[in-house]
């Protein structure tokens, strides 16, 4: 099960945090600080997995955004990489430009960085994408659903 | 398709009405203001102003802008600022009939309320009502929120509702309800029973979302309750069927990810199959074919295919699969090891680590690739490769593996050094093909990573060196050379000093078959030791070693004893208390006890190692050993070889505990080991109890030694089947008195020896009195009994020493 997911920029600014277990504020801050330090220190060609405390950390960098997930010992790291990728694709589909063609990934992320963070995070992600990730598991694997719901919200 | 609108999303589905919007500051503007703040301070100012405005707005009951204000507050919360004053507002909004407000209220609840907050209980009733709402969107809001932050009480209250929704007709709701049930089961384990039947029926759904949720729920139930696990084993055929459908079916645009149909669901099902098949033959049989099919048919060119393969491998290795399938799984891992993608190599090694104990041979086949990974750039990969390489070392590949490991040690990252060094030591100890190889390996590690080895390496190495008696010359030469090159690695320097002290005579002799000969003069050796003594890099312990080594050399060299004397006396005023004490005692040894110096500083006996079971290539089977160190002192010998001399000198100073209460043993410093044996003898006699010599008819006495007027006779009595008491009687037929008369005895390894206290240590002239000493022997293995006795005494101011071997004992039949 995924314990938490963090998004932070190359400069060390936290953009998004979602915790799937009840944790005290103080501990959350400490963990975020520690992890950001560790992940930002990694060199480009290094492995996407690392061990931290009793969890496994899976991270991937898209443009200048780091997507970082903490999973448990028995979880599958490779599929978590795919989950992160799916998340990024969804964000891109949602916040890409006006055309509905799948765009190159960085554009969605750039949007995320520049303008759409508030909207995305406040309105869309918790209601659509995080349900996709409810309880730390991805459970909606359909793109069609994505489009339909987007239509729902867009009106 | 729909165009993306750049407006705050306040739109709803056609079933709801628009509300009039009149926000004080639109969200967009606030965001713009925050983003345009150039400093942290400015940003804080903007946010404080906004929060004040929002708080004011909350206090009014302004209908229109409530959701908007809360939205602004949530954005501020996301940036990390405190937002707890919005909690009650969330509660109020959730209770509102308007969808727009409900939505933001639930969102706020998920972000601001967690089970630790008191306010969270207040929304229970709203959630309950909304779970039965007519609109599926409202229901889903409630379900999401409960699944996100529901506490144990809330879950208990609402569980029956969730169970009802699991059977709803709407798959959108069923999916959300399944995930909510997962959360409930995690919070309140007993409620799992409630959901089991519904979960079972959900497996026949076609909708992947619902199916996924059902599989997750069943996994959670099975992980927590063994009875439920039993029941769900019957569902294995259904799961196999679903999985087959996913693997064989053609392209489905709805679920395709890089050629694999719904890999997320596949991985979930494989995980559940793993749990169900673990420890169950029947269930494992049912899934054998499927696993083979997935393993062979899945396309492994992209990460997603490898993810499914990885999960398959994990499942195969964890259930009771047949051997062909296991081989297939290990081969997949082998293929992963050759993959270009570093991530794949990493997880391959993690999985191999888990099975290296059970499927050792299968993993051995990939040893070459694993060893290559030691040279990878990435530290995580290196760590995994090190763990795996150490696990793969065996007697047959020890030489080649050690070469690789030593190369790795010289270039490995600092955080792995200690682990690598201790792993190498363990491997060397278990599989060393020869003692020389073993010593070479340890020396190599000490020179490359000396600072990271554990403390007990030094005594272990010393013990090893003493057992390899043929290699003493070679070892001391090598260590001397290492010492000349570098004196910063403390463990190495300590061992080198100890060896030079012990075997200095071999070093000075110059010839050595194993290495090229090099001429070493006494001055060179003393120079080296003095450098160590004076260097700021040497730790106090190291300097202690060096001082003792210098002292020991006084009996092993001939010309420069004066130099040693001066070194020792200089350190008599050293600031370090330990060094000072040693130096003072050694000085005393030079001045007052010079006659004992040779005996005190002679070669050490081979040190017994406490722990059994290490296989060195060469056997060390000498028939008779030196004085058997008693078990009492055994622990100390390896750790403090230098301090033993100090203990000895402490006895000179008069600490009486270790001495037997019987008389006249005060002056016999050389008999420390005798005393040790006596002490141990005392203890062991107490333990064994029945070895008190029983007075019998006087046994026959046999003369065993007669030289220079000193005679020694022996008589023995059998006490039991394996026990024997030997009495040695000495007398002096010369014209001068003999003082400091001591006897030391040695017996074959398996025989136990206890020397009792002698009756005295003076032999007056012309046989006026005799000295007797009793020796108790225990020979449980009934080996051929031999005894070597060393006689030492002083007569007319000079010290004498002699040894006699006793091969036959009167009163003992030849068979013993």
General description of the model:
The complex is a heterodimer of chains A (155) and B (816). Chain A is α+β, with helices and mostly antiparallel strands and 155 residues long. Chain A contains five helices and five strands; from the N terminus they run ββαβββαααα. Helix content of chain A is 47%, strand content 21%. A five-stranded antiparallel β-sheet of chain A has the order 2-1-5-4-3. Chain A is globular and about 35 Å long. Chain B is of the alpha+beta class and 816 residues long. Helix content of chain B is 56%, strand content 8%. A five-stranded antiparallel β-sheet of chain B has the order 3-4-5-8-7. In chain B, strand 9 and strand 10 form a beta hairpin. The N terminus of chain B is likely disordered. The chains are: A alpha+beta (155), B alpha+beta (816).
Q: Supply Rg of chain B.
A: 42 Å
Total strand count of chain A, please?
5
Please indicate the percent range of residues of chain B in DSSP E strands (runs of 2 or more): 5-15%
Write out the strand line-up for the largest beta sheet of chain A, numbering strands in chain order: 2-1-5-4-3
* Strand content range of chain A: 15-25%
Q: Which consecutive residue ranges of chain B, at least 5 long each, have pLDDT under 50?
A: 1-23, 612-697
Global shape of chain A: globular
Order of adjacent strands in the largest pleated sheet of chain B: 3-4-5-8-7
Secondary structure tally: strands of chain B: 10
Oligomer: heterodimer
Query: What gross morphology of chain B would you assign?
Result: elongated
Q: What class would the helix/strand composition of chain B place it in? A: alpha+beta
Distance between the termini of chain B: 104 Å
Q: How far is the first residue's CA from the last residue's CA of chain A?
A: 35 Å
Uncertain spans of chain A: 97-155
Mean pLDDT of chain A: 71
The largest sheet of chain B, given as strand count, sense and whether it forms a barrel, is: 5 strands, antiparallel
């Amino acid at each position: 099960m995924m314990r938490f997911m963090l998004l932070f920029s190359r400069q060390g600014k936290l953009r998004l945090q979602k915790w799937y277990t009840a944790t005290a504020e103080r501990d959350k801050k400490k963990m975020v600080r520690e992890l950001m330090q560790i992940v930002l220190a990694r060199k480009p060609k290094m492995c996407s997995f690392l061990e931290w405390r009793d969890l496994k950390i899976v991270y991937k960098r898209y443009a200048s955004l780091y997507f970082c997930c903490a999973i448990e010992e028995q979880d599958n790291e490779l599929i978590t990489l795919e989950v992160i990728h799916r998340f990024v694709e969804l964000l891109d589909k949602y916040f890409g430009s006006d055309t509905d063609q799948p765009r190159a990934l960085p554009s969605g992320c750039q949007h995320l960085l520049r303008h759409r963070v508030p909207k995305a995070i406040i309105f869309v992600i918790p209601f659509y994408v995080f349900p996709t990730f409810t309880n730390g598991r991805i459970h909606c694997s359909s793109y069609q659903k994505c489009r339909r719901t987007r239509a729902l919200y867009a009106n | 398709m729909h165009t993306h609108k750049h407006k705050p999303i306040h739109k709803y589905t056609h079933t709801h009405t628009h509300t009039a919007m009149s926000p004080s500051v639109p969200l967009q503007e606030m965001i713009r203001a925050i983003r345009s703040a150039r400093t942290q301070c400015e940003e804080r100012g903007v946010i404080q102003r906004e929060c004040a405005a929002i708080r004011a707005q909350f206090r009014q009951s302004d209908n229109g802008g409530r959701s908007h204000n809360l939205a602004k507050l949530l954005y501020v919360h996301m940036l990390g600022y405190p937002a707890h004053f919005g909690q009650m507002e969330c509660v109020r909004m959730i209770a509102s009939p308007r969808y727009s407000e409900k939505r933001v209220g639930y969102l706020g609840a998920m972000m601001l309320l967690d089970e630790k907050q008191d306010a969270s209980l207040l929304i229970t009733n709203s959630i309950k009502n909304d779970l039965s709402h007519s609109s599926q969107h409202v229901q889903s809001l409630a379900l999401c929120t409960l699944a996100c932050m529901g506490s144990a009480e809330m879950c208990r209250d609402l569980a029956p509702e969730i169970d009802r929704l699991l059977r709803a007709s709407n798959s959108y709701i069923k999916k959300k309800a399944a995930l909510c049930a997962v959360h409930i089961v995690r919070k309140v384990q007993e409620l799992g029973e409630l959901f089991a039947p519904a979960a079972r029926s959900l497996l026949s759904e076609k909708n992947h979302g619902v199916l996924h949720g059902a599989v997750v729920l069943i996994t959670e139930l099975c992980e927590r309750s063994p009875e439920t696990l039993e029941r769900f084993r019957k569902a294995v055929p259904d799961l196999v069927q679903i999985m087959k459908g996913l693997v064989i079916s053609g392209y489905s645009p709805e679920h395709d990810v890089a050629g694999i149909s719904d890999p997320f669901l596949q991985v979930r099902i494989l995980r559940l199959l793993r749990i169900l098949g673990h420890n169950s033959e029947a269930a494992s049989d049912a899934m054998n074919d499927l696993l083979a099919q997935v393993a062979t048919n899945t396309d492994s060119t992209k990460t997603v295919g490898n993810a499914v393969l990885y999960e398959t491998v994990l499942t195969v290795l964890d259930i009771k699969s047949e051997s062909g399938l296991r081989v297939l799984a290990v081969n997949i891992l082998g293929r992963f090891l050759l993959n270009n993608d570093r991530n794949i190599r990493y997880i391959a090694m993690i999985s191999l680590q888990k099975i290296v104990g059970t499927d050792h041979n299968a993993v051995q086949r990939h040893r070459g690739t694993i060893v290559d990974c030691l040279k990878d750039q990435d530290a995580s990969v290196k760590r995994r490769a090190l763990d795996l390489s150490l696990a793969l070392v065996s007697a047959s590949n020890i030489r080649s593996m050690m070469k690789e490991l030593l190369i790795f040690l010289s270039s490995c990252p600092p955080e792995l050094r200690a682990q690598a060094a201790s792993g190498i030591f363990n491997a060397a100890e278990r599989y060393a093909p020869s003692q020389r190889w073993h010593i070479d390996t340890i020396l190599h590690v000490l020179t490359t990573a000396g600072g990271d080895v554990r403390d007990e390496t030094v005594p272990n190495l010393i013990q090893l060196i003493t057992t390899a008696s043929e290699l003493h010359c070679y070892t001391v030469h090598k260590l001397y050379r290492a010492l000349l090159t570098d004196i910063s690695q403390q463990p190495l320097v300590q061992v080198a000093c100890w060896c030079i002290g012990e075997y200095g005579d071999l070093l000075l002799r110059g010839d050595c078959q194993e290495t090229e000969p090099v001429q070493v003069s006494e001055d060179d050796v003393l120079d080296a030791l003095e450098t160590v003594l004076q260097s700021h890099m040497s730790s106090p312990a190291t300097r202690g070693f060096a001082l003792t080594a210098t002292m020991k050399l006084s009996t092993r060299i001939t010309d420069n004893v004066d130099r040693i004397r001066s070194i020792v006396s200089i350190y008599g005023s050293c600031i370090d208390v330990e060094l000072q004490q040693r130096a003072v005692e050694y000085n005393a040894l030079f001045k007052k006890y010079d006659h004992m110096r040779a005996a005190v500083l002679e070669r050490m006996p081979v040190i017994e190692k406490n722990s059994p079971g290490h296989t060195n290539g060469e056997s060390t089977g000498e028939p008779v050993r030196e004085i058997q160190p008693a078990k009492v002192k055994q622990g100390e010998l390896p750790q403090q070889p230098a301090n033993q001399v100090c203990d000895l000198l402490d006895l000179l100073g008069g600490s009486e505990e270790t001495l037997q209460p019987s008389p006249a043993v005060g002056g016999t410093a050389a008999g420390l080991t005798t005393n040790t044996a006596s002490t141990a003898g005392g203890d062991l006699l107490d333990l064994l109890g029945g070895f008190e010599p029983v007075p019998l008819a006087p046994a026959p006495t046999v003369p065993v030694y007669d030289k220079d007027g000193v005679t020694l006779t022996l008589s023995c009595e059998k006490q039991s089947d394996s026990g024997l008491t030997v009495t040695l009687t000495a007398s002096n037929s010369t014209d001068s008195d003999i003082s400091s008369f001591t006897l030391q005895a040695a017996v074959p390894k398996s025989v136990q020896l206890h020397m009792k206290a002698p009756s005295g240590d003076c032999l007056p002239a012309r046989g006026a009195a005799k000295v007797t000493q009793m020796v108790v022997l225990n020979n449980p293995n009934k080996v051929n009994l031999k005894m070597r006795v060393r006689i030492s005494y002083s007569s007319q101011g000079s010290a004498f020493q002699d040894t006699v071997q006793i091969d036959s004992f009167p009163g003992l039949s030849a068979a013993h």
